[in-house]
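Continuing the series of single-chain predictions for the mutant panel. This is the parent chain; the variants come on the following pages.
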Amino acid sequence: MQKSYLARVKQKGQVTIPSEIRKELGMEEGATLEVRKGQGGVLLVLKPSIEPGKVVGKEEYENIISELDESRRRWR
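Parent structure:
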């Protein structure tokens, strides 16, 4: 059985991922997570980081911009 953890959702929807999980996954500050609504919960998926200067396709670029715009709208 996998170990489970409890986390609280803070004022701006922030949740702290336990350090044991972050270390195991190699998750560092600034990591990008995909957030999916799942059956009865939320699934966080660690996405590979985009290296500075790395070329991404037009579709990926548009997805990134769309996600940033949506995040900005939610924070306002």
